[in-house]
Amino acid sequence: MTVLASTPISATAQPVAMTISDPSTGAFLDSLRAFGARSLVIVYAGRETRAGYHVTEIKTGRFSGLDCGANPEAWTETFIQVWDVPGEPQSRAMTVGKFLAIMDKVARDVGLDPASRLTFECGDDLGVIGLYAVDGIAAEQERVLVSLAPRHASCKPRDRWFEDNGIEKPVRLTEGDALAEKAIRDAVSGCCSTAKSPSNTKCY
To answer: Residue 40: enclosing H or E segment and its boundaries?
Structure first.
């Protein structure tokens, strides 16, 4: 979990850090409800959202597919799109309460699965939009910081193998790591290797 605090905090108002990493949509919203009057600031790509940011779109859907081991996958996901732009002079970022009101309206009007995977889409009016997962929350005296970490491409059978064996997966692979992991995947994880698709053939 990443805890970020960019403004000085007095000794009587230390940040309250919550251990919450890649939470479900419901768990994330529940973690914010005690801080309705505070400003909500989102930290992504090494910077904080500016005071004029706003939530431009919320999407929710059910997805199904096949991973690279030909294993069926099914999940629900909620996407919160944030447009990071400057505000007027002396303007304040939206409050946690306003953000929750937006999400509650989506739940009423569209439907929101509390167990769904949560992904933020963040960007400004110039750069390319990025996909992020919640990496941590820190509640300060007057604001709440939600820190985001980029969502990376991954191999699901490989990820399951690391999880099943209690091993922390590497963040970035060297060529040596890649060779070692290919041997792992071919041997036990099922990536590109199933009863219908032997490991010496292409995926599927």
So the answer is: strand 39-44
